[in-house]
Design a protein that fits this description.
The complex is a heterodimer of chains A (about 575) and B (about 80).
Chain A lengths: L4 E9 L3 H12 L4 E5 L15 E2 L10 H11 L6 H21 L13 E2 L16 E2 L5 H15 L3 E4 L1 E8 L5 E8 L5 E11 L20 H8 L4 E2 L4 E8 L9 H4 L3 E3 L7 H4 L9 H13 L11 E4 L5 H7 L1 H11 L8 E10 L3 E2 L5 E4 L7 E8 L4 E2 L11 H23 L8 H12 L10 H16 L5 H17 L14 H25 L17 H4 L1 E5 L6 E5 L18
Parallel strand pairs in A: 1-2, 1-9, 2-6, 9-17, 15-18
Antiparallel strand pairs in A: 3-5, 4-5, 7-8, 8-9, 10-19, 11-14, 12-13, 13-14, 16-17, 19-20
Helix pairs in contact in A: 1-4, 1-11, 2-3, 3-11, 5-15, 13-14, 13-15, 14-15
Chain B lengths: L5 H7 L5 H14 L5 H10 L4 H8 L8 H12 L4
Helix pairs in contact in B: 3-5
Classes of the chains: A alpha/beta (about 575), B mainly alpha (about 80).
Bound molecules: flavin-adenine dinucleotide (FAD).
Flavin-adenine dinucleotide binds next to α1, β2, β7, β14 and α11 of chain A.
């Protein structure tokens, strides 16, 4: 079969904020850039970010990047790499001003400066008073950033492959990444994109869990592509959950509901948070509330016919308060549950929100792995940024407003590093046909006909299993069972068949390949969670309730081959300032 | 505007936010076969709205100027099961 081939200096896989920021840097430097996205670029998940982006502009309250750095290191529960964190926090103000100049309509103060709001985890003076660090374009920050970057890329003549699905990376024997095999969703035709450099910017993997806040396109494709190219993925045990998502559906019910006086009850009508957090009760930290809900459900005090959720009461606040202070929550509940929270309590369960782990990179966006010499050798020709990457600025726990910052700062940094790489690597390397064939066989596998398990059913089972065995309630026995179950299910993948074999917009085939990706990422997550015998940030083990810096202040690396785990040290040395040594994380 | 095939429309129902995915995919999966040509056209047109505005419409926070949209939005909301 002769497959169309195209050549570019750089192939960017993913058109969210991370991919588009990198592409812009490159196109403006006259590099020949292709951006591939499975959905139209402005429908990338970055549009969902409403809260804002952090930068120590000090427009509302005193602030500086060093305080932001302290908060981020502390928030990461000391697992974040302090060189990357310093780099990000130092760059933040400049990055936000740059976005403003590019056309992002940030909300303003009366004096004309960019408005900033206060978010959890932000402090002045290294843990002192609340800081106000989050810049927002009304409640559409992600949307504004994404649209602005897209327009700028069009102007800079970035070449877009809209509605193309990346199947796998192309890699030669020496370990160079040479581009990717992609599929036109519209025609069902595969293409080979040869590139001197390839950047993965495919976003997070919330879809490995049943209840999650992510768009359904967040299936961890880039992480799985890296795994299949023998690249490990890092810190996958760290997944941020939000305590209150609509049960079984996942949509976020913000903390505001509890902040305004809402509280949680179990099937006996008991206000159970009083038992778990005597003082803070329903306003205890996210992980405490999430775990308490999971325990109530596990111990048979859940609500509903299946006993699989608890209830969030706001009905006692009265229609006026709900309408005035919580209008967004009311709309959400009316829309997705056809009921009014003014009259009835809301069924909720912890919902998976953010993937802290991902493809290991350094602060230049280069993908790094232990190749023989050191723990962090660059894989030639491969870069990664955004939620699919792990640089690692979020460590064990991400702070609100830091991920939009992460994608823009490191998108730009990766663009700059690629420009340097291109200067020294002017020619395309010979294509590795074996690697292309491997990617194509992954596609051809779905041409098999006949009866078999369905993609939908197996995905639902996987998501439910991950929720039950690798969610917020984690202990040895449960996790071990989770690993066994996911492995057993993965073995069933071979028997899955799709019924639609048409070429044009064959959603079934794409969903089948996404399911393969979900399995790779889910196995990485549950295996890493079983291994880490401590509680740190978002990873909390009931059997190892304390953080254990002596044994576990290190990053985990999961390999697809044999499901092997490796570890590497945390980079505790910042670029120019003193390290922040681990301290108990109390707020 | 030509009417697009179901599979093509279904792909356009994959959006950047869970809320939109849920509403749009549920609608196309359960209602496509029973939609009249006018609704189908309105739906197709509606899918061209940027995600942030589409969310406002579908959550009932903003009323679109075009009355054709209102009808199909009502149907999308009514199709949600729980
Ligand atoms: C509800 C919600 C609210 C949030 N609010 C905030 C906030 O206020 N502040 C903040 O800082 N963060 C927030 N976040 C997190 C933040 O939005 C994301 O981490 C960030 O937008 C990720 O950007 P990205 O560029 O890495 O990827 P994405 O924006 O997810 O883009 C991924 C891209 O990859 C493409 N892609 C994926 N797989 C393939 C494939 N196989 N082939 C081709 N293309 C592919 C997709 O089409 C898409 O273009 C929020 C997250 C959620 C869920």
């Amino acid at each position: 079969m002769s497959i169309p081939r195209k050549r570019f200096d750089t192939l960017v896989i993913g058109a969210g904020g991370g991919g588009l920021r990198a592409a812009l840097q490159l196109s403006q430097a006259e590099a020949n850039v292709a951006v591939v996205s499975k959905v139209f670029p402005t429908r990338s998940h970055t549009v969902a970010a409403q809260g804002g982006i952090n930068a120590a502009l000090a427009n509302v309250l005193p602030d500086n990047w060093h305080w932001h750095m302290y908060d981020t290191v502390k928030g990461s529960d000391y697992l974040g790499d302090q060189d990357a964190i310093e780099y990000m926090c130092r760059a933040a103000s400049h990055i936000v001003i740059e976005l403003e100049h590019a056309g992002v309509p940030f909300s303003r103060l009366n004096n004309g400066k960019i408005y900033q709001r206060a978010f959890g985890g932000q402090s002045q003076d290294f843990g002192g008073e609340q800081a106000a660090r989050t810049c927002a374009a009304a409640d559409r920050t992600g949307h504004a950033i994404l649209h602005t970057l897209y327009q700028q890329n069009i102007r800079a003549k970035t070449h877009f492959f809209d509605e193309f699905f990346a199947i796998d990376l192309i890699k030669d024997e020496e370990g160079y990444i040479l581009g990717a095999v992609i599929l036109s969703i519209e025609t069902g035709e595969p293409y080979i994109i040869e590139a001197k450099t390839t950047l993965l910017a495919t976003g997070g993997a919330g879809q490995i869990f049943r209840t999650n806040t992510n768009a359904r396109i967040n299936t961890g494709d880039g992480m799985a592509m890296a795994l299949r190219a023998d690249i490990p993925i890092q810190d996958m045990e760290f997944f941020q959950f939000h305590p209150t998502g609509i049960a079984g559906k996942g949509m976020l019910i913000t903390e505001g509901a509890r902040g305004e006086g809402g509280f949680l009850v179990n099937k006996n009508g008991e206000r159970f948070m009083e038992r778990y957090a005597t003082h803070a009760k329903d306003l205890a930290s996210r992980d405490v509330v999430s775990r308490s809900i999971a325990i109530e459900v596990r111990e048979g005090r859940g609500c509903g016919p299946k006993g699989d959720h608890v209830l969030l009461k706001v009905d006692h606040l009265g229609a006026d308060v709900v309408a005035k202070r919580l209008p967004g929550i009311r709309d959400t509940v009316l829309t997705f549950l056809h009921m009014d929270p003014v009259e009835k309590p809301i069924p909720v369960f912890p919902t998976a929100h953010y993937t802290m782990g991902g493809i290991p990179t350094n602060r230049y966006g280069q993908v790094v792995a232990p190749l023989g010499q050191g723990a962090e050798e660059p894989i030639p020709g491969l870069y990664a940024v955004g939620e699919c990457a792990c640089v690692s600025v979020h460590g064990a726990n991400r702070l609100g407003g830091n991920s939009l910052l992460d994608i823009i700062v490191f998108g730009r940094a990766a663009g700059n590093d690629i420009i340097d790489f291109l200067k020294e690597n002017r020619f395309h390397r010979p294509l590795d046909e074996g690697s292309v064939d491997q990617a194509l066989s992954r596609l051809a596998r779905w041409d098999q006909r006949g009866e078999g398990e369905s993609v939908d059913a197996l995905r639902q089972e996987l998501q439910q299993t991950m929720e039950d065995y690798c969610g917020v309630f984690r202990e040895e026995k449960v996790l071990q069972e989770g690993v066994n179950k996911v492995k057993a299910m993965e073995a069933r993948l071979a028997a899955v068949r799709i019924q639609d074999h048409s070429s044009v917009f064959n959603t079934q085939r794409i969903e089948a390949m996404e399911l393969e990706n979900l399995f790779d990422v889910a196995l990485a997550t549950v295996t890493s969670a079983l291994a880490r015998q401590e509680s740190r940030g978002a990873h909390s083990r009931v059997d190892y309730p304390e953080r254990d810096d002596e044994h576990w202040l290190k990053h985990s690396l999961f390999y697809k081959k044999d499901h092997r785990l490796d570890f590497k040290p945390v980079r505790t040395k910042p670029l120019s300032v003193d390290s922040f040594p681990p301290k108990p994380r109390v707020y | 505007m030509n009417t697009l095939s179901k599979s093509r429309l279904a792909w356009r129902c994959r959006r950047g936010m869970l809320e939109l995915d849920y509403l749009l995919q549920n609608f196309i999966n359960t209602q496509y076969e029973i939609l009249g040509p006018a609704d189908l056209k309105a739906f197709q047109h509606l899918l061209e709205t940027p995600d942030a505005l589409l969310l406002e419409y579908l959550m009932g926070r903003t009323i679109p100027v075009d009355p054709v949209f209102c009808d199909v939005i009502q149907k999308i909301r009514a199709a949600v099961t729980y």
